């Protein structure tokens, strides 16, 4: 579930909740915090893979021409 904060502006972009969770996962992972690596390096090592896949699927559903008729998936 996305984490909401009172002092933060609401992100109205598509897939905002998944984007926020994915970003938080990467920035709070031991790979970044303890080892001091860049988030892109941690992605290549396979960290936060489930959220990365969810974010990719959400973004892909925006480009899917079938979704014009069926509607966007509820992410």
Automatic annotation (TrEMBL):
Keyword set includes Transcription regulation: no
UniProt record, GO biological process: mitochondrial respiratory chain complex IV assembly
InterPro entries from the UniProt entry: Cyt_c_oxidase_assmbl_Pet191
Sorted UniProt keywords: Disulfide bond
Gene Ontology cellular component annotations, sorted alphabetically: mitochondrion
Keyword flag Disulfide bond: yes
Matching Pfam families: Pet191_N (PF10203)
Similarity comment text for this entry: Belongs to the PET191 family.
Protein purpose: Involved in an early step of the mitochondrial complex IV assembly process.
Name of the featured protein: Cytochrome c oxidase assembly factor 5
């Amino acid at each position: 579930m996305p984490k909401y904060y009172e002092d933060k502006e609401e992100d109205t972009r598509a897939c905002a909740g998944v984007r926020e969770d994915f970003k938080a996962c990467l920035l709070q992972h031991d790979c970044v915090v303890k080892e001091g690596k860049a988030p892109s390096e941690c992605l290549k090592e396979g960290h936060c893979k489930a959220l990365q896949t969810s974010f990719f699927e959400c973004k892909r559903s925006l480009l899917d021409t079938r979704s014009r008729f069926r509607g966007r998936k509820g992410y």
